Model the fold of this input.
Amino acid sequence: MKTTFDGIEMDLHDDGSGGLPAAEYDPLRTPYDVREQDFPGEKSFSDQLWFLLHYAVLAPSTHNTQPWRFAVLESEGIALYADYSRRMPVIDPGNRELVISLGAALFNLRVAAAHFAMPCEIAYNLSGDSERPVAVARIAPPLLGGRSCPAEEELVSLFPSIAGRHTNRNPFLLSRVPASVMLRLASCGADSQCELVFSTDGVVNERVGSLVAEAEQHQWADAGFRKDLAEWIRPGATPEADGIPGAAYSWTGPVAALGQYASRTLDQGLLRAAHDRNLCVDAPGLIAVTGEDSVLHWLEAGEVLERLLLTVVREGLQYSYFNMPVQVPQFRTQLKALLGCSAWPQLLLRVGYCLTPPAPTPRKPLQDVVLSQPMQ
Ligand SMILES: Cc1cc2nc3c(=O)[nH]c(=O)nc-3n(C[C@H](O)[C@H](O)[C@H](O)COP(=O)(O)O)c2cc1C
Done:
């Protein structure tokens, strides 16, 4: 079925399950089972675009809100929309993290398109109009001769990491990350307006750890913050297809079952601050993604973030976030000075080695995030 939106012809699919009956859809398993050999090379271009979306939705998003909507544009590519109904009003009042999440999904589209030798260019729309796409990935059908340039090869090398990337909140080993690996991570910020700032200095990391702890206590004391957070926390075995399940925090049994209630009602600031301070101080490496505060820079920060995370996975490392001081203005200013950033910190991460594997988080079925009718 076809329709026209903004003068562009769109292909409307009814079934986004990738061929699986809805009853068998397991949000913790099915999305990660996408197999590259199922790429519909012999089918229509819109089927091929639809297939790429299986990789886009595996991107990370703030609290796994999956704040995206896609539209398959006949003969043109994929439009990406922000879903502001999934915003976090207290933790992310300016939608900064929401837009960064969209950038991460865009980067997965770039990688998947490169893997299937489909030329892809991103056109950003900075009008701020929520009814219009924030970006359109202009994608062409697969090239018969395959891919060519080194930049494309680099993207292709990240493809196997898309389904294996998960946030790992467990303690990391103290082992140092070799300088050669750190250099490869540093290259993820090249060709972008967003800079990556690294710290492997124990003294700086101690100070950052103290700031993380202070910011965390500040946030937990706020009932609005706890409500925002609890909204997206799920019990251990969750049938829901969004939010963070207890397993991703290594919670089991009653702790997982009560996680949402406890997060909403109890100020756990002291406990969490001590825990996260230690993780931060012990981290072999801290990395800040930095950039200016604008929709374009946030989209770019999301692309750099996902490039970095997929590279981390490719290099056999693990990562998690310490965004608390980035989320509160007074601590953000201090973090910027501590790390000597020339632009605003957008995200703060640790990287290192870990023997405990991370737990996957659920994803919504494609038909829930692909527009079946034009936004008006
Ligand atoms: C912009 C952004 C901000 C995030 N902030 C945090 C954070 O402060 N703390 C945290 O533990 N995880 C954070 N995450 C990770 C998400 O919770 C995670 O991506 C989501 O639950 C999906 O899980 P996955 O990354 O394992 O696929 C953030 C992710 C993004 C994209």
Remarks:
- Residues 60-64, 97, 100-101, 104, 166-167, 169, 244, 320-321, 323, 361 surround flavin mononucleotide (CB under 6 Å).
- The chain has a mean pLDDT of 91.
